[in-house]
Amino acid sequence: MPSHAVAALLLPVLVSIIQAGEIGQERKFAVAIFLALTYSTSVGSIGSLLGGARNILAIGLLETVTGTSLSFLDWMIAGVPIALVLTVLTFFTLKLVYPWEEIDTQKIRNKLQEEVGEMGSMSRGKRKLE
């Protein structure tokens, strides 16, 4: 799945978390969590060929220029360690640049559970869509 599609899917989740925790936009945690979404979608897409068109393009260019072909597994053997290292570096960079304070996760959890309860059970039509 392309990284921009992942970001589009997860953006409403982050907005709900920020709203449920009553975390103001000016707080460093709010800034860090949205930056983490944008950075992590790019970093995570490095790990697999399915992460975006640029990975397949890179393999095509490699094969055209050098004659070397990489399989899906070959790409992951190289890409997953890079993605893991970049994930850790991204976390610590965000923590250094936007040092956020402690967040009341229980408050967020309770508010989100309350909202899910208000939605009620899934209708038959919604279940069919899954």
TrEMBL record:
Keyword Transmembrane helix tagged: yes
A GO CC term assigned to this protein in UniProt: plasma membrane
Compartments where found: Membrane
UniProt keywords, alphabetically: Membrane, Transmembrane, Transmembrane helix
GO BP, sorted A to Z: carboxylic acid transmembrane transport
GO molecular-function terms, A-Z: organic anion transmembrane transporter activity
Transmembrane segments: 30-51, 72-94
Entry membrane topology: Multi-pass membrane protein
Protein's UniProt name: Citrate transporter-like domain-containing protein
